[in-house]
Amino acid sequence: MKFTDIFIRRPVLAIVVSLFLLVLGLRSIGLLPVLQFPRTENAVVTVATTYTGADAGQVAGFVTTPLENVIAQANGIDYMTSTSTPGVSVITANLRLNYPSDKALTEINTKVNAVLNRLPPEAQRPVLNVKIGQTTDAMYIGFSSKTLPPNKITDYLTRVVQPQLQAVDGVQTAEILGGKLFALRAWLNPRKLAAYGLTAADVHTALANNDYLSAAGHTKGQMVKINLTASTSLHSLSGFRNLIIKQHNGAVVRLKDVAKVTLGSEDYESQVAFDGHQGVF
Prior knowledge:
The chain is of the alpha+beta class. The protein folds into 3 domains: 1-32; 43-135, Alpha-Beta Plaits (2-Layer Sandwich), CATH 3.30.70.1430; 182-265, Multidrug efflux transporter AcrB TolC docking domain, DN and DC subdomains (2-Layer Sandwich), CATH 3.30.2090.10. 35% of the residues lie in helices and 27% in strands. It is built from 9 helices and 12 strands. The strands form 5 sheets. The chain has a 4-stranded antiparallel β-sheet with strand order 2-3-1-4. Strands 5-10 form a two-stranded antiparallel ribbon. It has a two-stranded antiparallel ribbon with strand order 6-7. The longest helix has 19 residues, at 11-29. The radius of gyration is 31 Å and the shape is elongated.
């Protein structure tokens, strides 16, 4: 007796099996993955370092080169590119296809931390950022005001708008273009500096020595313990203006005597405009 004879003698069984296979096939159609291309992950790790006041050659020699040498030792890197501009070093590490981005970011961060003592003291700590996949700018939102300056608009966007946009599902990052961060601007007068026998380095030293926070430890008695903090940081524009730069024979030279001190932006080298009005994107 052949196997097919069972279904000939029992037609009801044959119908039930056929219906079962039909239902199973229909159910499987919706579960089959349909991909035009295979699923891939292409990540890019960016290391940005700020070295204020340095030209492109100094940035390349003292910041970019040491970082490139250690980042190249990390696993999973396909190729690297770097740019050195006045005051800024940017190193881009393109990872191999489907290499875990979290693992590469951790290893690159470890390599960068190991070489921090070789960077110039004036250079800021490198900032690492990872982007996965092909990033596309889906929308540009412009902010401008007739009453608020760009630095106040940037402060509002950083504190309120940017966190909400980054919390939206599917948004990888929300970047601020043309932002102006708050910064103290001391416009030095060379004639007044020469008259008082001062240089720009003397002003820089005075600012560095009089604007810092120090942990002084703690004091405790039998029942009480108090933490001590020595704060000499300046918090107001008037405090910076009255900062003592030099003392000689009872005479005091303050920062306002040799410079015009204002609260402005970190840089004025670029700006963003929309319909002829300066703004922030």
